[in-house]
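Pasting as-is:
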Amino acid sequence: MPTTADLEKQERFERRQIKGGLERIQHNTKKLLEKDYASATVFGSASIETLLPYLIEFIDEKKKARKKVSVGGAGHLMQLLPYIFDIDTESQAAITAKLTFDKIFSPRKENSKVVNVVQAIGSALEAESQMRYYETSAPGLFETLKANYWHQAKGTEYKRKSMQTLMSKHDIDQWKPWNRVEKIKVGTWFLDCLLASSGWFERSVFMHRNKKQQFLVPTEKFLKNKEEIIRLAELFSQLAWPMLIEPRDWSPMHEGGYYLNDLTRCHDMVRRGVPLCVQGEIPYSFLNKIQKVKYRLNPFIVEIAKVLEEREIEVGKFRPVINHPEPPKPSNMDDEEARKEWRKEKAIACNKNANEWRISCRTRMTMNCVREFEGKEYYVPWSFDYRGRAYPIPSFLTPQDTDFGKSLIKFAEEAPITEDGVKWLAFQVATTYGLDKATLGDRLEWVTKPENIQLITRVATAPIENIGDWEAADEPFQFAAACEEYYSVVLAKTRTTTGLPVATDATCSGLQILAGLARDKSTACLVNVVPSDKPQDAYQVIADTSRENIPERLRPYWDRKKTKRCVMTIPYNAKPFSNRQYIRDAFNDIDVEVDKDELTQIVQAVRDAMELVVPGPMKVMRWIESEVSKAIKRGSQELTWVTPSGFRVTQRLMKMAHKIVELKLLGRCRVKVLDGEKGVDLRHHKNATAPNLIHSLDASLLHLSVDKFDAPISLIHDSVLCRATDMSHLSTLVRDTYMHLFAEHDFLKDFAQAIGAESEPPIIGDLEPSTVIESTYFFC
């Protein structure tokens, strides 16, 4: 129980989070305004999202009216018609809104002059039209140039100019540029539409540089809207950090996690859940138990990270800021060619440095958290998603992070090492190195080989000098952490306790759950629910079964890796379209081209093989899709079911009245559609129910397992992490829980009753769930 002093310390820490969030949002807003990016600020993006549907509707009405006017009646606007109808209304509205906000809220008063605003709008509309012209005229060339050159460009004008220069070197009709007058007239037309549809801005005349000039200024109506947006944004801007004391318990009567109301109101117990929905007793106790686990940073990994950051060395997901030096000015700057070459090299270096700052974001933020929590013990507050899976509320220093992020943490409460614990430490070393598909015996044998003992010793004693030994591992930082733990506890024996999180997970958890639901023994055998001497490989079996039905020329390349993503995702209702992409990507990895007809044949072969190899799961998924369709057509607004642990799942999926606008230079824009189609999303329900049912059951399996486990534990979706000395006990608990889950519950019938199914669920019935107790590789 936290003391009064502990509570005061945590509350001071949470006030720092609140203050830090406010400072961050204010700093970001200031920086964006300084760069003329008001459209990207909190108030700008929210306002534009609100404005766009009305602006689109207004422009469409104006266009319709203009089409009805005779050529002679179009008057002075006749010359503008080709520009007004050049691209789609959604894109024109998004560009107009963005440029208007950027200019009006610029700290440089000159930018908000009406003439400058309309010229900027006109120029941006021309640039978008120009890119679409290139894309239509030479689509293959456009995509190639975009892929090869745009990633180096910092701004839209740089991208436009680079594309224009490159296109001019090829045999296509060149773009006919708009003149200044045309840009201003087009910009004025669209600006007038924005002013009329929103009432947010108006033209005002001010003295500027001894001259009367027209400026755009926000109206009182907009200023009130802006203040409210900023107030709400600041209300939910708090930083989410780990905690210094045990998080507050969740209960039906009050929120849990953080202590101050300013933080708790930002984090519901069930994300995207139904407000005020009371869960069963076990989900509450599960969440409160995993919140009481104490962590600390792994000093070995922290020191490695500091050195890599200082020396600007990239390893795996660790991406520090790598500075690319700008070229020195040439001695012959008067020479035009030398000056041109220098400017080109400098631009490339500047662009690389800007890109480095962007891609290093995750690592920089993680290292900031490391500096905050180094030498401290801490706790992680957790919450559920609406299916019952547990997620940490903080984004950093949690078990659900990148390889680097995971490697940073250890359980603060260590346990004396045991003979069984030594085996599990060896298991962690081998698994993180890349032997995750090997048998348990092979993994343990790999660790004890003399050459690998030397490898472990080098990594543990001199990791920086021997980066090459560990950076190529499947999970390099976790491998380094495992090597250090194994070396210190087992080889050198400088420590007698272990706190390293050791991870095990399910084998094709989707198929494991579906096998239990359908009581399908053939599938259960393939996914290690039934005992075997070595891990079973469903991917390889399906690859072998489908081999004869794929194109003959591709058979020499056909193996488990080509089928893996398809087999993994089909239980989660992946459709043939996504299967095609997975197959294409797998062959692209080995530089083998596959045409569309071959892809169709391969996907069909894999899906046919799954019907033969895993018949129970395929029948269950089809049944779920059919019955969900009937339930929605009967008028159900949502689907609800209660898992064996007592977690109430509410699946509410409504049609979203949005449209995605893809701008060639300004990127993707999400637009609300006025009076768009709404109501229950039948298609989404049909696609989502099977995967959500699986996720809710694998979550329930862990709720029930953790309820019986009394040692430090953490979770990554369907994977569990605990100390090496506790893993055998935890694995037994998980297998025992799976057995009871499916032996004592006919959950598919419960689900059928919950959704009002009209037909009996397809249960094969030849699996005896109790066999899982003896399965070594069920969770491994």
